[in-house]
Amino acid sequence: MTTKQTGTYFPAGGIDEFLPRIGRVVEIDDLQLAVFRASDGTIFAADNHNPHPKGGPLAEGIVSGHYLYDPLYDWKIDLTTGQVQAPDNGQVQMYPVKVENDQVWIAV
Questions:
Q1: Is the pTM of this model over 0.85?
Q2: Domains along the chain?
Q3: DSSP for 77-100?
Q4: Which residue ranges does the record assign to the Rieske domain (predicted)?
């Protein structure tokens, strides 16, 4: 798994600001993150940079289960690990997320 383990959590917004299955861009320090809320309520935070050689934003992807479907390159990315699924390959940097008192916190 490529989740950064730094431990300093920053507020990213209220849980209601993150609509199910739709990405939202959150900026923390100099990082631009794509934050997703799965239909089961799980929140995921990833670097908002597609690992495809041509790049692009990940926040525009569509979430189904715990997978992100990138409409630009038709890639499938596991949001629990950041791993791009075969036949494609690549890795997305994921960040730890916690929810406390309806507030989303992301560690960077």
A1: yes
A2: 9-107 (2.102.10.10)
A3: EETTT-BBPTTS--B--EE-EEEE
A4: 10-106
The pair of three-digit structure tokens given for residue 4, joined into one six-digit string? 């950064």
Amino acid at 52: H
Give the mean pLDDT of the chain.
92
Residues with Cβ within 8 Å of residue 96, at least 6 apart in sequence: 3, 4, 5, 7, 9, 45, 106, 107
Burial environment of residue 54 by CB neighbours within 10 A (0 to 12, 13 to 18, 19 or more): exposed
Alpha carbon distance 15, 7 (integer Å):
20
**Token digits of residue 5:** 């383990």
Structure confidence at residue 6 as a pLDDT band (50, 70, 90): low
Give the model confidence (pLDDT) of 43-86 as tens digits: 999 999 999 999 999 999 999 999 999 988 999 999 999 999 99
Residue 18 pLDDT exceeds 90: yes
Neighbours of 95 (CB within 10 A): 25
